[in-house]
Amino acid sequence: MPPQPGAPVLKLPKCDDPEVEQAALAAVDHINQHLHQGYKHTLNRIDKVKVWPRRPFGEVFHLEIDTLETTCHALDPTPLANCSVRTQTQHAVEGDCDFHVLKQDGQFSVLSAKCESTPDSAEDVHRLCPDCPLLIPLNDSRVTHAADAALAAFNAQNNGAYYQLMEIARAQLVPLPASTYVEFAVGATDCVAKEVTDPTKCNLLAEKQYGLCKATVAEKLAGEDVSVTCTIFPTQPAAPQPQPDGVAAPAAEPAAPAADAAAPAAPPAGQPPHPQVL
Amino acid sequence: FLIPPPAGAAPPVPPCPGKIRHFKI
């Protein structure tokens, strides 16, 4: 039967149609722009798509997409294109998302979004890599202790600002040597690390400076062995500053490890800020 | 009559789901 005059007509384009991919990428951008914890996600597969006309103008894309966790934390300003996908041997995490994306005047905007994330199964991880550690709950006492011990060790060695814990982002129990691996986000405060007596009185800086720490804490007979490396991201101003005509704003750079940086130093004038590894 | 596809022709690509960009879990 031909459609009634004026009735909406459903389109079923191919999932890899370039216009559908554009809608899916707009959806993934939306996820990452509204993410305040955990890790950025990247598009893995477009599962289903339906396109409805929208009155009076435009089209609505109903998309079901699969995403994968990257190694870039939500607070990391590295562009998604420069973020690596978390490998299966690191215990990958998948996202299942349902989106409504409006296309109007050539622009895509997200109308609704619903996502759920799930880690890969233990069987799948161990099928690929029998000895690889699995993710464990972030509120496990061994994890919270490892994050606290690692942050204390980091602040004790740090000559600059006192960093406070923002979020424990992932954790694994490593069998040999028996240890806890933890990744956690930190934020710079208005206290000096060497002078802090009461951390509860420290406040996050107005010009936000975040970082991601990776630590391994191993229990030993004579105490514990703490190893921690923190990558401090470039500062993130609250509002973009106006730029003179013809001068581009500094672009964010990937958080590539520097060789050795004992203390944060301001980049030379005119150069974009780099992450610091401490 | 059924007309066989020409020899060497690529099989039709299903419209959905799309390609896997990294790996499937």
Stretches of chain B where pLDDT falls below 50 for ≥5 residues?
none
Q: Count of helices of chain A? A: 3
Helix content of chain A: 10-25%
Point out poorly predicted stretches of chain A: 245-272
In percent terms, what proportion of residues of chain B is strand? under 5%
Rg of chain B, rounded, reads: 14 Å
Written as H for each helix and E for each strand, in order along the chain, the element string of chain A is HEEEEHHEEEEE
Largest interface chains and counts: A-B, 24 and 12 residues
Going by helix content, strand content and strand pairing, the class of chain A is mainly beta
Radius of gyration from the alpha-carbon trace of chain A, in angstroms:
23 Å
Please state how the strands of the largest beta sheet of chain A are arranged side by side. Answer: 5-6-7-8-9
Shape of chain B: elongated
Strand content of chain A: 35-45%
| Number of extended strands of chain A | 9
Summed up, the helix count of chain B is 0
Strands of chain B, total number? 0
Overall description:
The complex is a heterodimer of chains A (278) and B (25). Chain A has three helices and nine strands. With 278 residues, chain A is mostly beta strands. The N and C termini of chain A lie far apart (68 Å). Chain B is largely without helices or strands. The mean pLDDT of chain B is 82. Classes of the chains: A mainly beta (278), B little secondary structure (25). Chain A binds chain B through residues 12-16, 20-21, 42-49, 66, 68, 85, 88, 92, 94, 120-121, 124, and chain B through 13, 15-25.
